[in-house]
Design goal:
Blueprint: E1 2-8, E2 12-18, H1 43-51, H2 54-75, H3 81-97, H4 99-112, E3 116-120, H5 123-138, E4 145-148, H6 152-156, H7 159-165, E5 169-172, H8 175-182, H9 199-209, H10 221-238, E6 241-244, E7 248-250, E8 255-260, H11 264-270, E9 274-280, E10 284-285, H12 291-302, E11 310-315, E12 325-331, H13 335-339, H14 355-359, H15 361-366, H16 377-388, H17 407-411, H18 418-434, H19 441-452, H20 456-466, E13 477-478, H21 486-489, E14 494-495, H22 502-510
Parallel strand pairs: 3-12, 4-5, 4-6, 6-9, 7-10, 9-12
Antiparallel strand pairs: 1-2, 7-8, 8-11, 13-14
Helix pairs in contact: 3-12, 9-10, 16-18
């Protein structure tokens, strides 16, 4: 099913937007455009640099352990926590199964209450829509600055950069996002974008980049927060346009919800004349009562709080109160491709709580920048490849950025089985590699192993050859191998080969015992094992 969408901004354009459950191969569908910041260096290369940064590892270890401890405390207070997780997963699965009708219901509800809905297939369309809307809001007095609520969707499409290209400055008002913006840095965490910075670094960033800051500023957290507040207050009062994301959107009422901890979002959502919200199409919930589930799951899983300090909800336009022009940009940008995978679509349940990042041993040691995506950590390792597609680029390494320990699934408030999805994406990558004309090093190694294990004689010769590795061992472990095997030993060691192979051991044990000796072959009574390898009657257990 398709529908024609006419968008009115500085120009009139007509777009054909697909609506419906895709029934094709996900790889055949359009994926996220490269306008945003979804891909970067291969994970192994970026992670190697991050592991060498001891200050980064210290900052991450301290911050994630603190959040984990807080989360565990507030979750333990909820007797029906597992039932809440089940409900959260079920509601999201219902949304994904009925997404076309819920999107149209949401559009109708927003429009009936004075808002306008716009549809964007990818980052380029979404950015173009937002720029047109900002320019239209300015009229004869062009707008050169907008304020922003923290939003992963706008980071995904590279909106700040697109606005800058159009001579419009976007000011991040979330404290952590502001720190990252002033430092000309990139976010490294879904919830705490500046988690890789300590307070001494933040103080220096403010001194270097924040206009009007007191040079006597200390690194006391309250002093830093007050400096940011004074800077942002002037910006809030002057802003005519605000841009936000949405944590949730209610299909039956057209209501949008933003939850936050600082109050900056409330300022952006109420003071400006025009409000533009960019939201992924998966953020819907069917009914108002469904918010009850997520407003319990999200704060406990994200900040370790019982409830969010600020929960802002708005429905269309209220005359004389708040923004008088309300726009919603519904963003696909690869989500339809993810939806086409009947297993992989579970990643679209994600409510961006970041609980999986805080328990992940890989994230804790490498940080978010190593993932090369605005969605770092375990959820980024499954979501990014589905949004962008896997075509041999750097994103193909993300499904391998995991130990598959399962901690992410245990804490996910909507029960996304991230380890299962990672294994599935690894299989897709392997299938893709099979189609390459030139074999990868991994394929070449597997082909060599297949040839060596094809006959008993080759396998026995290989076992004997491996014993030469004992000369490289120190203390029973091999800690360095020559290339290309050095890729393994740069971050792990290998047990030294045993003195004798299994075949040699078996041959020695199977030799007939001399006359009069008890023997040690597999059929002797000292083994307690019959010649066929089955324990004798009465030795299977204790009666």
């Amino acid at each position: 099913m398709t529908r024609t969408v006419t968008t009115t901004g500085t120009t009139n354009t007509t777009r054909t937007t697909f609506l419906g459950m895709p029934a094709v191969d996900p790889d055949a569908l359009p994926h996220a455009s490269d306008r945003g910041t979804l891909t970067g260096r291969p994970f192994p290369d970026a992670a190697r640099d991050a592991l060498a940064n001891t200050q980064l590892r210290h900052n991450l270890g301290h911050a994630t352990s603190t959040i984990r401890r807080k989360r565990a405390g507030v979750v333990a207070e909820v007797p029906d926590w597992e039932e809440l997780r089940d409900a959260g997963a079920a509601i999201k699965d219902d949304v994904l199964a009925r997404l076309p009708e819920l999107l149209e219901q949401f559009e109708a509800a927003v429009t009936a209450r004075g808002g306008q809905v716009h549809w964007a297939r990818d980052a380029d369309e979404a950015n173009s829509l937002v720029i047109d809307l900002v320019r239209a809001a300015g009229g004869d007095d062009p707008i050169r600055q907008v304020v922003k609520v923290k939003s992963m969707a706008t980071q995904e499409i590279g909106l700040n950069e697109a606005l800058a290209d159009a001579a419009i400055e976007a000011v991040e008002t979330d404290l952590a996002e502001l720190i990252v913006q002033l430092a000309e840095d990139r976010p490294s965490h879904i919830l705490v974008p500046a988690i890789h910075r300590n307070r001494s670094e933040i103080r220096q960033i403010f001194l270097d980049a924040m206009p009007g800051v007191d040079r006597a500023l200390t690194d006391d957290p309250r002093a830093l927060a007050m400096a940011a507040r004074a800077y942002l207050r002037r910006t809030f009062l002057a802003a005519r346009v605000a841009i936000s994301g949405a944590n949730f959107a209610v299909a039956e009422t057209g209501t949008l919800a933003v939850v936050e901890s600082e109050g900056n979002g409330r300022m952006c959502l109420t003071l400006p004349q025009t409000l533009i919200t960019v939201m992924g199409i998966e953020k819907l919930v069917p009914a108002w009562r469904d918010l009850e589930v997520y407003l319990q799951l999200l704060p406990r899983s994200s900040t370790g709080e019982r409830m969010n300090p600020y929960t802002s909800l708005w429905t269309g336009v209220t005359p004389g109160d708040g923004p008088q022009e309300v726009h919603v940009v519904l963003l696909d940008n690869g989500r339809t491709a993810a939806l086409a995978d009947h297993v992989g679509r579970a990643a679209l349940r994600c409510i961006r709580c970041s609980a999986c990042l805080n328990v992940c041993p890989v994230y804790e040691r490498t940080g978010g920048h190593a993932y090369g995506s605005v969605y770092p950590g375990p959820i980024g390792a499954v979501l990014t490849p589905q949004l962008t597609g896997m075509d041999g680029g750097p994103v193909d390494t993300l499904p391998y950025a995991s130990s598959l320990c399962g901690a992410c699934y245990q804490v996910c408030p909507v029960k996304i089985d991230i380890p299962e999805l990672l294994v599935r994406l690894r299989a897709r990558h392997v299938d893709h590699e099979r189609g390459r004309r030139l074999p990868s090093p991994e394929r070449a190694a597997m082909a060599a192993m297949s040839w060596g294990m094809r006959t008993p004689r080759r396998f026995a010769a290989g076992e004997t050859a491996l014993r030469a590795g004992r000369f490289l061992a120190r203390g029973g472990r091999i800690r360095a191998l020559p290339p290309p095997l050095s890729a393994w030993t740069t971050s792990r060691d290998v047990p030294a080969p045993p003195e004798e192979t299994f075949r040699q051991w078996w041959a020695r044990r199977s030799r007939p015992a001399p006359d009069g000796a008890s023997g040690d072959g597999p059929g002797s009574s000292t083994d307690g094992i019959a010649p066929d390898g089955i324990p004798p009657h009465g030795s299977r257990g204790v009666s």
